[in-house]
Description:
The protein has two domains: 1-77; 82-290, no CATH class. A hairpin with a 4-residue loop joins strand 11 and strand 12. By secondary structure, the chain is an alpha+beta fold. The N and C termini lie far apart (83 Å). Strands 5, 6, 7, 8 and 10 form a five-stranded antiparallel β-sheet that branches. Strands 9-14-13-12-11 form a five-stranded mixed β-sheet, with no helix packed on it. Strands 1-2-3-4 form a four-stranded antiparallel β-sheet, with helices on one face. The protein has helices at 2-44, 48-66, and strands at 83-86, 92-100, 106-114, 123-127, 149-156, 164-172, 177-188, 191-194, 199-200, 210-215, 222-225, 230-238, 250-262, 265-272.
Amino acid sequence: MKYIRFYILIVIGLLGFNIKAQQTPNKLVAFQDTLIKISANVLMAQSDAQKLELNGRFVKTLVEALKTPNSFAFAFDSLKNISVIQSPDHTFRVLSWYLPLEGGSYRYYGAIQMNTKSGPLKLYPLIDQTENLSDPNIITNNQKWFGARYYEILPVTSGNRMPYYVLLGWKGNTQLTNKKVIEILSFNKDNLSFGAPVFDGKELKGKNRVIFEYAKSNAMTLKTDLKAGMIVFDHLASFDPEIKDKFEYYGSDGTFDGFKIIGGRLKLQEDLTLNNDPNASDELYADPKKNVKPIRKF
């Protein structure tokens, strides 16, 4: 009889565990649906004041969702307005998004969620202070964030040094230009910092982050290339040699540079030759080397 009671208790316990396990994703799906509705309302908002008010509701709802046990495992992949990227070592993830405002400016929002397994939520809110940073090269923390919408994370380790993470991000800027950012994220116990002097190459001494600015009418490649084993990006130049440092006239000149990880540092590699996998549309590609006078439109 004792064994039967023991067996019944085990079954009841397992059933209760399964019900709770099912309730967690259902609860997070409900939160996600609410967040999707708020996002749609943000897009339809008629003024910056309305956008900011609705975004405040979005932030509060998102934090409540992240407080749900095991929320770290929930992808929020139906929530298209925010980027959710997880570090390859599964220790944290970054959630980031932006609001386009009147006059062509942007405001950025985000958070870093640590993977605490089933423990309490550990969250670092990211407070965009772009407008208040007198020097965009300074090392900052989550309270003084150089805002961006991140889309890739690359961990860097070397020997016994503490690892750091390279974040690649898009940063809409003004009506005339966009920016992209190579940001450095590192953790020290319960603190985190953005920016570090890990870049090597000409004109890179003392750089804590790399910022690219280019014409809004153009696109810029900035991505990790696993085959090349580096971060690759378009080389930006002014279409008119007489115009310097007016970035609304800058775009790709058709060449590529990159950063290769050597000894835990990012070393600049210039004039890269990138080989793509064969593609059925390759025959449609016009080789610029065959043009006597190539024409570039920016």
